[in-house]
Amino acid sequence: MIKFAERMNRLGTESAFEVLARARHLESQGRSIIHLEIGQPDFPTPDNICEAACQAMKQGYTGYGPAAGLMEFRQAIADHITKTRGIEVLPNEVVVTPGAKPIIFFTLMALVNAGDEVIYPNPGFPVYESVINFVGAKAISLPLLEEVDFRFRMDDLIDAISDRTRLLILNSPQNPTGGLLTEEDLAAIAQLAKEHDFYILADEIYSGIIYDGQHTSILQFPGMKERTILLDGHSKTYAMTGWRLGYGVAPQPIVEHITRLMINSNSCTCSFTQIAGIEALTGPQDAVIQMVAEFRRRRDAIVEGLNRIEGIHCLKPAGAFYVFPNVTRLPLSCDELADYLLAEAGVAVLSGTAFGKWGDGYLRLSYANSLENIQEALQRIETAVGRL
What we know:
CATH architecture of the largest domain: 3-Layer(aba) Sandwich
Strand content: 5-15%
Low-confidence stretches: none
CATH class of the largest domain: Alpha Beta
Number of helices: 12
Structural class: alpha/beta
Shape: globular
Mean pLDDT: 96
Strand order of the largest sheet: 2-8-7-6-5-3-4
Oligomer: single chain
CATH superfamily of the largest domain: Type I PLP-dependent aspartate aminotransferase-like (Major domain)
Number of strands: 12
Number of domains: 2
């Protein structure tokens, strides 16, 4: 029997991929399954981005690149963040990674010691809590509450802060709720970060997919550039999940430490993918605009449809491509309900508890699927719930 390192017991997983595997198994047996469990756009990567990658391969961008990323891509990212967040960013304040997840991992590895406390949103992206535990820190959950549109109460944040608080993780727009922090929220958080001397990891991977209001980054508040690590990437906005292209924007000393972690783990991010990333940021944005408009249509349809089903209540999310309906009035727990809908209705969804204890009583449905499939899924859910 293999004896693994104790730290592996502290590392979690993502339920979305586990449910996807179960759904695929049912499909292999001939079952019709509608996938509302996985969080990736169902749109193809825009043609101009694919063409840029092909040209880059032909031009020789197939070897090792700098660990922190190609300088031309870092410059394009710096220009993009300067324009979209309204604060000047330099290329040496940017580090490129294969996907955005390494920024979560590397930030915690670089900044947090065993015994430090990290506050994270709950329900939230499960990797946050998993990596906090993995590095030996203490995970302090910050409840996102339906009664405040899946934001958190500022009093709850104040109560969570201690003299051991090292880092606060923010995610706006949020996975799994689609909630959006307000400018007033962020201003208050910025003040608390300065008063109590902790850093912010701002996960803004869904910043390009907002329907109501505008994206505001904590990076743009006075004094916050010095204590913020911004996480973003191309997976969601440009339908590039499989390309694995993410980045962090942070003070240069933090970038240097993340670069050392890159050297010791991945060496570098794929070079021709980075050239495609430049085209994504600087080329036409028509495909993004069309994708967000289609997501808005789907959001409106799925929220309306869920609210027609007796026992289900669903808020309309402000961003991302998830809904997080309340199912506490139904006779099954959210875990049992998710299993039931897959087995009996052929609809793959996630239990809210996959995103933390504060997700209990909810389901997460991704509407990164066709409107036709969403309508069929709603009909199947309504029929299955009616049999409970």
